[in-house]
Specification:
Glutaredoxin; Glutathione S-transferase Yfyf (Class Pi), Chain A, domain 2; two-stranded antiparallel ribbon; globular; glutathione transferase; GST_Theta
Length: 205
């Protein structure tokens, strides 16, 4: 795809999205991009607090997130939509169950260790930690795995994030994720299927 075209490696060494090009400066990896943008545009302090301990709490969550929430939540989308789309074959239900069990463990830790009884991850105001968390947790929702339904504390946190961001902007930002099932109806180039199918399967191992 476009990420393999000449020049992609000049923005991202791994030729993957997201990647940022800001004038002559290039940067890869979503967390690094978020932190760069928050500093460059002098965003309101609550997003990435100047208080050293509050900022450390954001960093703590971002470090934990990648090996836990991010390691499980997006896999629901791959299992239910993307891998069947590229391979032409549904994955066994046991694979989804395995991922959901791992995600459930991560969500329990998220609620008990990070959210606790606070409005947001680091306290009374929303931060980059909440944005990074919610965008991953909306992916299971988009494929019919409503992880918020039986978790009232998590559900209330999501509602507060929606309100803080603004409902219109929140759903605009997640529109593609929430409509991901529509991809099942598109036609994929056979050569692209052949190239990507083994790569996608490897991602779940």
């Amino acid at each position: 795809g476009p990420s393999n075209r000449e020049g992609a490696s000049k923005v991202s060494l791994l030729k993957k999205v997201p990647a940022l090009k800001d004038g002559d400066f290039t940067l890869a990896e979503c967390t690094a991009i978020l932190l760069y943008l928050s500093r460059k545009y002098n965003t309101p302090d609550h997003w990435y607090p100047s208080d050293i301990q509050k900022r450390a709490r954001v960093d703590e969550y971002l470090s934990w997130h990648h090996a836990n929430i991010r390691a499980n939540a997006p896999k629901t989308m791959w299992i239910k939509v993307l891998i069947p789309l590229f391979t032409g074959q549904p994955l066994p239900s046991e694979k989804l169950q395995e991922v959901m069990e791992g995600l459930s463990t991560s969500l329990k830790q998220f609620e008990e260790r990070f959210l606790q009884d606070k409005a947001f991850i680091i306290g009374s105001e929303i931060s980059l930690a909440d944005l990074v968390a919610i965008v991953e947790l909306m992916q299971p929702v988009g494929v019919g795995c409503d992880i918020f339904e039986d978790r009232p504390r998590l559900r209330e946190w999501r509602r507060r994030v929606e309100d803080a961001v603004g409902k219109e902007l929140f759903f605009q930002a997640h529109e593609m994720i929430l409509n991901i099932k529509e991809l099942s109806n598109i036609q994929i180039d056979p050569q692209l299927k052949e190239q990507l199918a083994p790569v996608l399967m490897k991602m779940l191992k």
